[in-house]
Design brief:
Length: about 350
Amino acid sequence: MSGEASGAGACLYVISWGLERAKIGVAADARKRLRELQVGSPVELKLALSQPYPERRDAVAVAEELYRYFAGCRLHGSWYRLTVAKVREALARPATLEAPARARAAAEATAREARVAPRRGGRTEKQRAYERRRRQERTRKQKWAARLLAQGMTQHQAAAAVGVTSRTLRNWKAAPAFRHELERQHQRAARQPNSAPARSAKAPARPDAADTRRDRAKRAGPAAQPQPDRPPRPPAQQKTTAEQTPAIDGEQAERDGPFAAAEDQADAADPPRSPSTSQRDAVPIFPDTPDGHAARLAYYEERKLNNPPSSLLDYNDAKRGLEPPAERRARERRDNRTPG
């Protein structure tokens, strides 16, 4: 279908060739359309039917109704496998005759909805709420900036205090609302000449890099200076320190309790044959008792990452209740050693 205006007259045409081949379309001049199609057609085409309509949209409505009715006979495009007689019968159907009226009613309903309903690209309630918050925040910052400028701050300082760029503040100055607010703040400041500037009006100052390094050096300076020699303690303090030493030794003994208890049990189970029977070549030998197993597990758990993978394997053996190879070899050397 060509693109003439919907108000201009048009006609519904049926161009056929052969027995059951027909093309249904709409054009302002059916014979001209036939000549255009004949140029690229290898067969002879004939204008079998041409029915005029006062408005193009009426002819389009009838053609669309025929398209729906003959959908099962469609070959490709607007070519169908049917005869001209079938097209004439379809044109006499009530649904085809009522197609122009239905099209006009649908167009009028669409126009009414377009006038009443909002545009489809309108913003959602969430977007409107977000824009409302943005406007409120901008108004608050503009009032704050106007107050700071009225108190004598420069544009750069006021922008830094408010949290915007100098360019944004310069754009605000071009707005009539901001100029009005700035004038009102100037008048308010003129009525209160002795009022001190607000604490929040102080612009944040960026420390210089050199000053920062000097401050760090000053903070680190006293800690790096050597401490002077302290005078000897009086006898009373020395006595107090000596009294505290047994308490510290007691706490250390409590922390080393499991290992000390295991060594004592090993010495009790195996009579000493040499100056050191519970340890051979820096390998402790634990007794085959529940306490000895617990002490062995604690010992190897503490040393499992000192010399991997052997220390980790020893810990796994102790965890399963077995005697690690190093401890077994130390026990065998101790037992096989002849007494001196």
